[in-house]
């Protein structure tokens, strides 16, 4: 479940850590009880939505598969394997999760959903072969985990500022070792947060969260010479 990646652990070392920070915002993660067990609410499993419908919730938002695909893209990237990627997830109900770069996310959605349910109940997931926490529920706000002065970029198709992502990442880290990019991990709507410095669009076309994540990682890999 883990693969060894060299990342700083001490606070002072983290301040100098050259990396891309990705925040996956508004991920629809909600465990619901179905019979005697808990499952992750999903539009692909109507039996997980019955109680939410009774409570008057908009059940069309429950697409945790989007988060799954995006995490697979990020954690499989050469940038992550080089120890230059840090990932946070913030759910739609404001639960903040830190992802250890050494996590090997389950390849199948069913196993991924079970892992998320376990995490939200136990608040952390440990490696089977050591003491490392692979997933942890941590305290808000997410901004306290950013290096001082790091620029924070939101990404949204709705933004009127269309940019070349390769040029933008070069400008983002011109004077710094770190930049933060925020990607929506949901099916519909726009990012509505108060901690971005600017919101950009990186394509003339609406892209999936996983595609956006892949393009951003590729741009940083090119910038930092990660092959």
TrEMBL record:
**Location(s), subcellular:** Nucleus, Nucleolus
Any Gene Ontology biological process = rRNA base methylation
GO cellular component terms, alphabetically, are:
small-subunit processome
Q: Which UniProt keywords apply?
A: Methyltransferase, Nucleus, Ribosome biogenesis, RNA-binding, rRNA processing, rRNA-binding, S-adenosyl-L-methionine, Transferase
Please provide, alphabetically and separated by semicolons, the GO molecular function terms listed in this UniProt record: rRNA (pseudouridine) methyltransferase activity; rRNA binding
Membrane-crossing ranges are none
Family, according to the entry, reads as follows: Belongs to the class IV-like SAM-binding methyltransferase superfamily. RNA methyltransferase NEP1 family.
Tell me the protein's name. Ribosome biogenesis protein nep1 putative
Organismal lineage: Eukaryota, Amoebozoa, Evosea, Archamoebae, Mastigamoebida
């Amino acid at each position: 479940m883990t693969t060894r990646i060299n990342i700083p652990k001490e606070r002072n070392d983290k301040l100098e850590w050259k990396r891309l920070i990705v925040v996956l915002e508004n991920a629809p993660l909600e465990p619901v009880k179905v019979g005697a067990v808990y499952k992750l609410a999903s539009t692909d499993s109507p039996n997980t939505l019955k109680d939410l419908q009774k409570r008057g919730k908009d059940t069309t938002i429950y697409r945790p598969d989007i988060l799954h695909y995006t995490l697979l893209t990020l954690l499989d990237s050469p940038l992550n394997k080089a120890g230059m990627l840090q990932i946070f997830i913030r759910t739609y109900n404001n639960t903040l999760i830190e992802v250890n770069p050494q996590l090997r996310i389950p390849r199948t959605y069913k196993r991924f959903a079970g892992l998320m349910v376990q995490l939200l109940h136990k608040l952390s997931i440990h490696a089977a072969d050591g003491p490392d926490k692979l997933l942890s529920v941590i305290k808000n706000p997410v901004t306290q985990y950013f290096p001082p002065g790091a620029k924070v970029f939101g990404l949204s198709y709705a933004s009127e500022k269309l940019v070349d992502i390769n040029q933008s990442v070069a400008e983002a880290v011109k004077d710094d070792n770190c930049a933060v990019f925020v990607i929506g991990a949901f099916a519909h709507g726009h990012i509505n947060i108060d901690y971005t410095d600017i919101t950009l669009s990186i394509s003339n076309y609406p892209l999936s969260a996983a595609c956006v994540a892949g393009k951003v990682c590729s741009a940083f890999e090119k910038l930092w010479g990660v092959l």
